[in-house]
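Exercise 7.
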Amino acid sequence: MADIKTKENYSAADIEILEGLAGVRKRPAMYIGSTNSTGLHHLVWEIVDNAVDEALNGYGNIVTITIHKDGSLSVLDEGRGIPVDMHKATNMPAVQLIFSTLHSGGKFSSKVYASSAGLHGVGSSVTNALSEYCDVTVFRSGKINHIRFENGGKLAIPLEVTGNTKKHGTLVRFKPDGKIFSTTNFQFETICTHVQESAYLLKGVKFVVIDERDGQNAEFCYVEGIKEYVANINKAKDPIDEVISFEGEEGSIKIDIAMQYCYKDYAESIYSYANNVRTRDGGTHESGFKLGLTKAVNDYAEENKLLKGKAKLEGSDIREGLTAVISLRIPEQILEYEGQTKQKLGTPEALQILNNFIYNNFSYYLNEHKEFAVNLIKKCQDSQNARLAARKAKDEARSSKKAKSEMILSDKLTPAQSKDYDRNELFIVEGESAGGTARKGRDRLHQAILPLRGKPLNTDSIGVEKMLKNEEFATIINTIGAGFGDDFKVDNSHYGKIIIMTDADTDGAHIQTLLITFFYNFMKPLILKGKLFVAMPPLYRVAKDVNHKLTYKYAWDDEGLEKAKKVIGAGSRVSRFKGLGEMDADQLWETTMDPAQRQLCKVTIEDPVQAAREISILMGNDTVVRRQWVEENVNFNEVDSFIDEVK
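Solution. The predicted structure, written as tokens, is:
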């Protein structure tokens, strides 16, 4: 790239002021994270969150989201309606101020909203800034008020009264700007997943999603709220007892907790929220919950002499197999988050409040449900025994002779020569044959090859001790070199990318699923940090001889095959790759391993709750539930389009 020459001396005349919403259009990713499908849907969440805040504060119980045929989307709530009177300081209607000025809104104090998801006042204005048009209709005080913005937030139609009404609420309709986004195609399922979560948290509030493009529609409303949320997550599992729930108010904080234990679940799944915002990194409310839960179970076990001389249970023993949802409503004046994003709650009061709340309520529940309590203590002790056995196995592995460790690795692993771990890549390859081809075709400096022998175990249905005894998983853990489970440290990984490379068939897809389940259960930070990938080998090669020179093109699906045939022309021959082993080393490098040409599918977790539930269904033992899920969610006629989307 040619060097760009900059001025040696710049002055005040060179300073630009991006007025209004121009700064948002200049750097959209600063406000919505990206300009791909994720950023596109962020526009929706900003408007939906405003409707949710109204419902959260007791105004309106129906929110309707409609995807229109022209590519626009509208959100209608039954709240109080955005104010339309004049704002004295700016001399413009409040609704115009909110949609055209960053950091404006009614959520900076508790006078208008006792609690809310939005704090920064940028949501509506950012959606407006990144839209071709944004139409706002306010039903308030018996009047229909309308205002319209176009071309990135420029006022097109000033606020006007267009009629009378008995309704109250706000209707926002916007069309995302195709010059900003790589895609403007709203996904019905993505929107449904998001609003379903809100429906669980807002007990009794109905969310309606309508897709005018194909006639799809869905409704979400849960009378029992997060109790149904937990039941849905554990649908394919084996619960010890019913879903337990506690509601209350301590000081100025409202608390809603639902929890359930499952027999054969080895994971701990805690999902926490503050004012309907997912706190993915936990915080003071999760810490308080864990402290109170641990104390309640240990105190009950000691008082009823159930420990039988053994050591107290650790928190991890007590939380194994637990699914819990924690939802707090916190007043704005004490709401704190750690860092710039709302990923971790920092409100100090929440720690002790949750500690006391869960201790008192769960202690009472245990005393009132003795059979459940005894079964729970037994499960916790089984977890304790498994933890101690796993620690012993881990210690034995660490203390074993270095030669034995090297033998395990050298027998299977072909290592990368570089010690630049961030640039190194580990290919986990299906089968010895493909592994041998990959060894020959790889970049020796930065690419390591680890072939698998047979299918891995399903780690969703086995404990840690059995997993560690499995040679395939033990080798993967040793090769990556960053530990596993609670001890896993993603920054210690010997590879910047872990790439699963299997045949493009049913067995290959099954192996991918089993390996992804392993990484999800024991090395989840690899996925969260974007370091886990699936290689996408081609299905076809179209070739012909032209003047004694082979001309060819690869295709990853049937549509690509037809395009390749047209490019190569008449007289071409088509090769169908049934497996990686059918390619020679040069072909495998060129199509699947060369960073300059290959296609990788990054494994991501868009919704942790959805991911946890779907893994438990797909990898669980309940074949009836799994078959039902597949029939409802998988369209086998769309496999080719899926392949095209993940490139």
